[in-house]
Design a protein that fits this description.
Blueprint (H helix, E strand, L loop, with lengths): L1 H8 L3 H49 L2 E3 L2 E3 L4 H5 L9 E6 L5 E4 L15 E7 L2 E13 L4 E11 L1 H48 L15 H51 L3 H37 L3 E4 H11 L1 H5 L5 E5 L5 E4 L1 H18 L4 E8 L2 E8 L6 H12 L9 H14 L3 E6 L5 E8 L7
Parallel strand pairs: 9-11
Antiparallel strand pairs: 1-2, 3-4, 3-7, 5-6, 6-7, 8-10, 11-12, 12-14, 13-14
Helix pairs in contact: 2-4, 5-6, 6-9, 6-11, 7-9, 9-11, 10-11
GO molecular function: kinase activity
EC number: 2.7.13.3
Catalytic activity: ATP + protein L-histidine = ADP + protein N-phospho-L-histidine
């Protein structure tokens, strides 16, 4: 079954339409055949019953009374009516008032032996063949004869069945012609429907591999949904490629100076003979190496959050869990043992629609900036503030300079990676995460003369239990 489903999914649209049309015609053919045969049989029965009734009436009208007994002179026109069924056998029986057969075939029996069956039609057999019979009474109320004479005329069913089959065949011929016309029309429609797709495919094939501009092709409304999705995908891909290009460019720019400085210090160390100066060079090498490592970590984190901002699936995230996980990791206690870090989360869930890993990376950078450049104590928390969900870091310092704060938004509004070092790049990462998930990075001094860096998002409503 899975293999069949897989083959069905890869089948062309033309084949699917052809299969659907074939099933429709087969099912419709069966239904139409049954209905046409039923209609044809009823039409044939009605037509030939009238012929039987006419013949029986002609015979009944020709009966007279002679010497107190019915006299029968079979009229020729009565049997001429039945010539419309030349292949059928014809039988008749005339029954007197006392139930005896005056003339005709005694083998023709009334239904279930009922002698009181005076008028109408019934089905029976005539010498082993199925037949249809009509009964017409002729009533006499004379001095010498008082009673009813019954005229029974019947014929076999060959003509009736042939008429029913002919009507069915004609209906099937019409169905076949209609099905052929529908199949041709369906082929034209499918071809017309696929033409915009072929146009889109041709346009994409002729494009330059680096051309990720939106597809601007006039297509039907139903196909426009695919064009919109394709343009959205190309836009995300373009942002990803731009991010990678900027990362490579910024990495080359940022690493050139530190690597050159490390090379120069290494050259000085190899040429220096004084042990005291060598120790200072080693200290500078360690400082440069640590700074370079932090820079690389932040640039890789920047590339990660930009990538996940476009590709990661949004999920319901409780910001309290992000703050708690970062606090329990305890990296701050190892790297900055002299700085007090406190956790402040409440009992009320603080849920947003975002990516957990990106939020954690952003909060880690905010905490790193506070530990590196702020003053103890440092607080990490999550809270609901005026209908907004916020995850934040506070320290007792005054925050970064105005030039850094002004540069964060301007750099990212232009979609370019920050080339700043230190807190500027950490704040830039946090800003990128906030923008990716529809939030803001808010940097402010609180009423307690503390500096707060917060990621603020739209809070999700709690699900009813």
């Amino acid at each position: 079954m899975p293999d069949f489903a897989r083959r069905l999914e890869t089948t062309s649209l033309k084949a699917r339409v052809a299969l659907g049309m074939a099933l429709l015609l087969v099912i419709g053919g069966v239904i139409v055949s049954i209905a046409a045969f039923a209609y044809g049989r009823e039409a044939a029965r009605s037509a030939y019953d009238r012929l039987l009734l006419g013949a029986a009436n002609d015979i009944a009208s020709a009966i007279t009374v002679r010497d107190g007994r019915p006299a029968i002179n079979l009229p020729v026109p009565a049997f001429e009516l039945l010539e419309f069924a030349p292949d059928d056998r014809i039988g008749y029986r005339i029954i007197g008032p006392d139930g005896e057969t005056l003339t005709g075939y005694d083998e023709i029996a009334l239904p279930s032996g009922r002698r009181d069956f005076d008028e109408g039609f019934f089905d029976g057999s005539f010498f082993g063949e199925p037949a249809r019979f009509a009964v017409v009474p002729r009533r006499f109320a004379e001095r010498t004869l008082n009673g009813t004479v019954k005229v029974v005329v019947g014929q076999t069913l060959l003509a009736r069945n042939a008429m029913a089959y002919e009507i069915t065949r004609n209906a099937l011929f019409v169905l076949a012609a209609s099905g052929l016309a529908m199949a041709l029309l369906a082929a034209l429609v499918v071809r017309s429907v696929l033409r915009p797709l072929e146009k889109i495919a041709g346009g994409l094939s002729a494009r330059d591999p680096h051309d990720l501009t939106p597809v601007d092709t006039a297509v039907p409304r139903e196909t426009a949904v695919m064009i919109h999705a394709l343009n959205g995908f190309m836009a995300r891909l373009d942002r990803q490629m731009n991010s990678m290009r900027h990362l490579i460019s910024d990495t080359a720019h940022q690493l050139r100076t530190p690597v050159a400085a490390l090379r120069a210090q290494a050259d000085l160390f190899s040429e220096e003979t004084d042990l005291g100066r060598k120790e200072k060079i080693v200290e500078r090498l360690q400082t440069r190496t640590g700074s370079l490592g932090r820079l690389l970590d932040q640039m890789l984190a920047q590339a990660l959050v930009i990538h996940r901002g476009d590709s990661a699936r949004r999920e319901r995230v409780d910001l309290r869990d992000i703050a708690l996980d970062l606090f329990e990791e305890g990296d701050h206690a190892v790297l900055y043992p002299d700085t007090d870090v406190m956790l402040e989360i409440g009992e009320v869930p603080v849920r947003v629609l975002a990516d957990e890993l990106s939020l954690k990376e952003a909060l880690k950078n905010l905490l790193g900036n506070a530990l590196r450049y702020g003053r103890s104590p440092v607080r990490v928390g999550a809270s609901l503030e005026k209908g907004k969900a916020a995850i934040w870091v506070e320290d007792s310092g005054s925050g970064p300079g105005e030039e850094i704060l002004a540069g964060i938004g301007a750099r990212f509004n232009k979609g370019v990676l920050s080339r700043q070092t230190g807190s500027g790049l950490g704040l830039a990462i946090a800003h990128s995460v906030a923008v990716s998930f529809g939030g803001n990075l808010v940097l402010e001094n609180t009423s307690e003369n503390r500096f707060r860096a917060a990621l603020v998002f739209e809070a999700l409503a709690e699900k009813a239990s």
